[in-house]
Amino acid sequence: MDDRGGSFVAVRRISQGLDRSNTCHSSSAEFVTGSTAWLGRGLSCVCAQRRESDARPSFDLTPAQEECLQRLQSRIDIPYDGSVPEHQDALRDLWNAAFPEEELHGLISEQWKDMGWQGKDPSTDFRNFPKSFQDLLRKQEGDRSVWEYPFAVAGVNITFMLIQMLDLEAVKPRTLVGATFLKFLAENDSAFDLLYCITFKMMDQQWLSMRASYMDFNTVMKSTRRQLEKELLLEDIMRLEDVPSYKLLTR
Predict the structure, then answer these.
(1) Would you say 237 and 177 are in contact if contact means Cβ atoms under 8 Å apart?
(2) Is the pLDDT of residue 226 over 90?
(3) Do residues 174 and 57 lie in contact, with contact meaning Cβ atoms separated by under 8 Å?
(4) Which residues pair with 201 in a beta bridge?
(5) pTM score > 0.85 for this model?
(6) Helices 176-187 and 217-232 sit at what angle, rounded to 10 degrees?
(7) pLDDT tens readout for residues 174-189
(8) How many CB atoms lie within 10 A of CB 164?
């Protein structure tokens, strides 16, 4: 929706041419987040709505889990700042992962629209699964809709959905799925990054199975969240790599 709650914007499909450890460690890769204003005018974030009336129990944390949660929360709280060299480098890394054979002419460029940003000044990591990254960016799998979801905006929506679903802004988790995730995080400091990749591929599979078009995006996101919660709570899941949808990822 635009600023007045008006028109919907979509992106047409890009053509084909175009250690694990026992304790938590800090990571050099940081998330850059910002206000919902930069989500774009096309797709509203369906998951940034908090249900204040929920009376949910809290789960006690081990010292290692508490430390890992605090580190992840510090990453969530970092706003994008175009004057910070590390943030500039993160955007260049994102562009190079998406279009390794095309030079980016500037951090403010119309080229960003090719990735699904709504404007030329964008303000997230699939480096471990480059083939999955390219498949999602270029919509290379399945019978696609003519009008597809914008890749970049979808990634932002997924980030917000995970933050809410896992209750990552709370002092300690108040949901079983949030407590389950912290067990994974205490063993793997990249657990959130990996879950993001799994979720993106899961969302794309839901999109294809529902034969969705851009007007169905919110419905697809809700379906993705339900499926992700279900998989995370399966009894035999000991690590994120055991989640059934992990098999969707390709390197």
Answers:
(1) no
(2) yes
(3) yes
(4) none
(5) no
(6) 70
(7) 899 999 999 999 999 8
(8) 19
